[in-house]
Amino acid sequence: MNAHHADEPRNAEPSAPAANGRRRFLLGAAGLAATPLLLGTVGCTATAPAGSTPPSSSLDPSPATPATTTDRSVSAAITMAGRRTLGALQVSSIGLGCQTMTGTLYGPVSSRDDMIGIIRSAAAQGVTLFDTAEAYGPFESERIVGEALAPVRDDVIIATKFGWDIDPQTGRQQQGLNSRPDHIKQAVDGMLGRLRSDHIDLLY
Amino acid sequence: MAGAVGELITAGKVKHWGLSEPGPNTIRRAHATQPLTAIQNEYSMMWRGPEEQTLPLCEELGIGFVCWAPLAYGFTTGTINSATQFAPGDFRGMLPRHTPENRAANMPLVQLLQDWAVRKGATPAQISLAWLLAQKPWIVPFPSATRVSHLLEDIAAEDVAFTAEELQELTTALNAITIHGDRLGIMTGTEAPPR
């Protein structure tokens, strides 16, 4: 059994990001050093000045730098084509978690603009599942996701979560949980505003 | 709760719904009221709790499964060891599993990942994600990334495929490794109060 045999056919990806074809990337950091794409994007990590926008923030697919060798390990990259089905919902086989982008979980991040750039890079390269929550920040992770994905809103799946007892106005978090119906509805209205959308694709 | 979400679905504000870290009774009850799209639990090569009850139940009911912390807070990327100093503000320094002693004791897992990374021409993070993808075709990990290089490394994991024999060999080796240190003390297996 191949691990991926049960996936959707990989050539079934209909949206634009994958249209420039699928190239291989396996060696991670070792391979990255040789890729023109990464030479252009690595600068947006911790050393980038606040407010800078990485080249990767463009919504265009990754630069079409054809691999000049048949060695897969140094081919330029990186379009995710695999799709999986959750219930009746189709998503990329790997999603992007956006909890750490507020800089309050794993420590500071390079900049808010860089986080928006990373989300847009992911979308451009075929990731369609983006995970956030009301409690991440609180609110700020949803704001970052909403701003980043507004231009491609209809092409992506945004998952967010309620459950903690968070004041819908102030974001102040109380101890414990709150899943009372009136609180859920208030929380969802707040989420929609921050996500710049009229709907949540997947709500936990 | 399922009823309130159902109203939001009827209103068009919510398209699909799921539960995070629920107990099995809650999954059945919620799914019967408003069909669930996904369960979202911690699942990684370091925390395999969902294999006991949750994954079989998802399979039975046709519910997808989404993994948070699929790289075990970075440990299965192979970039953390007992000498790692977590930056101020990085909560991982407070995780029981990330005490220096437990990090040292858990290095056999990193060694296993590094061995397989060499064997498959991949990185330890990619082996970790590919192992999760290989468990079921309806499992979707979502690693977090705050650097483009990590994002690209993660999404390329979909290109790492195991044969049935390889998957069995890797899982058998994983089964033989004892993980040291408790999981983060969050609620899991939580059941909704009875009506």
Structural class of chain B: alpha/beta
Bin the helical content of chain B: 40-55%
Number of separate helices of chain B? 8
Mean pLDDT score of chain A, rounded? 72
What secondary-structure arrangement, pairings included, does this model have?
The complex is a heterodimer of chains A (204) and B (195).
Chain A: H1 29-32, H2 36-41, E1 83-86, E2 89-92, E3 96-97, H3 112-124, E4 129-131, H4 140-149, E5 157-160, E6 164-166, E7 173-177, H5 181-195, E8 200-203
Parallel strand pairs in A: 3-4, 4-5, 5-8
Antiparallel strand pairs in A: 1-2, 6-7
Helix pairs in contact in A: 3-4
Chain B: H1 2-10, E1 14-20, H2 24-33, E2 38-42, H3 54-61, E3 64-68, H4 100-105, H5 107-120, H6 124-135, E4 139-141, H7 148-155, H8 164-175
Structure description:
Chain A is α/β, with parallel strands linked by helices and 204 residues long. Helices cover 24% and strands 14% of the residues of chain A. The two termini of chain A are 32 Å apart. In chain B, strands 1-2-3-4 form a four-stranded parallel sheet. In chain B, strand 2, helix 3 and strand 3 (64-68) form a beta-alpha-beta unit. The radius of gyration of chain B is 18 Å and the shape is globular. The N and C termini of chain B lie close together (11 Å). The mean pLDDT of chain B is 94. Strand 8 of chain A pairs parallel with strand 1 of chain B.
